[in-house]
């Protein structure tokens, strides 16, 4: 199989993370998500709990400043560390699935990149978050809005295009319409066809 890198971006509550894990498992690919932080923490002798506070979050404009290419923002420093990690994995020739972290932007132009964005209907996302986290409807709505706001700000800070803009992804899909299993199957069919064209 030629080198294949599948980047999965997602709305909170769309089950994008679960679908991405299934794709990785079914294709026998390494899977990267927030656990990237564990390796970065080990390599840099930093407690992973420190990094988790700044993961995929927009910088605090009041507490950070940039001088040329240098920033004292932990959010931006961690983002760049993760971007470097992703680039090194791609340069090594490894095939993998990665969730979030602006991978579709970091690896723009890479011949093996397949970028996916997963959305969901609002009511379906609310129901899923209520069930997964055992919280009320109002708390689920607030959690979705909070997470998606942070993801959008993070992405738009580090990318030349807007988060979720369908023109910049290979495929956008609504997981609420087919459900998790069939959405995963539809994406795997697309991925398999793309891989066959790379050969």
Please describe what this structure looks like:
By secondary structure, this protein is an alpha/beta fold. The protein contains 8 helices and 7 strands; from the N terminus they run βαβααββαβαβααβα. The strands form 2 sheets. Strands 2-5-1-6-7 form a 5-stranded parallel β-sheet, with helices on one face. The chain starts with a strand and ends with a helix. The relative contact order is 0.21.
What can be said about this structure in brief?
The chain is an alpha/beta fold and 199 residues long. It has helices spanning 16-27, 36-44, 48-52, 74-91, 103-106, 122-133, 137-158, 175-198, and strands at 5-10, 30-32, 66-67, 70-71, 96-99, 113-119, 171-174.
Gyration radius, in Å? 17 Å
Please mark out the parts with pLDDT under 50 across 5 or more consecutive residues, or reply none.
62-70
Count of helical segments?
A: 8
Structure classification: alpha/beta
Strand order of the largest sheet: 2-5-1-6-7
Number of strands: 7
Q: How would you sum up the global shape?
A: globular
Write down the overall mean pLDDT: 90
Strands, helices and their partners?
Elements: E1 5-10, H1 16-27, E2 30-32, H2 36-44, H3 48-52, E3 66-67, E4 70-71, H4 74-91, E5 96-99, H5 103-106, E6 113-119, H6 122-133, H7 137-158, E7 171-174, H8 175-198
Parallel strand pairs: 1-5, 1-6, 2-5, 6-7
Antiparallel strand pairs: 3-4
């Amino acid at each position: 199989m030629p080198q294949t890198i599948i980047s999965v971006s997602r709305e909170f509550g769309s089950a994008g993370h679960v679908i991405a894990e299934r794709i990785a498992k079914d294709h026998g690919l390494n899977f990267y998500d927030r656990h990237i932080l564990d390796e970065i923490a080990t390599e840099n002798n930093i407690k992973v709990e420190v990094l988790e506070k700044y993961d995929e979050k927009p910088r605090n404009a009041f507490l950070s400043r940039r001088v040329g290419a240098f920033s004292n923002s932990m959010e931006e420093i961690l983002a760049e560390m993760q971007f470097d990690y992703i680039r090194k994995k791609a340069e090594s020739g490894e095939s993998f699935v990665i969730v979030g972290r602006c991978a579709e932007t970091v690896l723009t132009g890479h011949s093996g990149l397949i970028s996916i964005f997963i959305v969901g209907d609002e009511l379906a996302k609310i129901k899923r978050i209520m069930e997964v986290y055992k919280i009320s409807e109002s708390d689920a709505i607030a959690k979705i809005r909070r997470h998606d706001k942070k993801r959008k700000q993070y992405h738009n800070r580090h990318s030349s295009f807007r988060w979720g803009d369908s023109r910049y992804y290979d495929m956008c899909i609504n997981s609420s319409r087919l459900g998790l299993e069939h959405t995963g199957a539809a994406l795997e069919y697309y991925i398999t066809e793309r891989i066959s064209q790379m050969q």
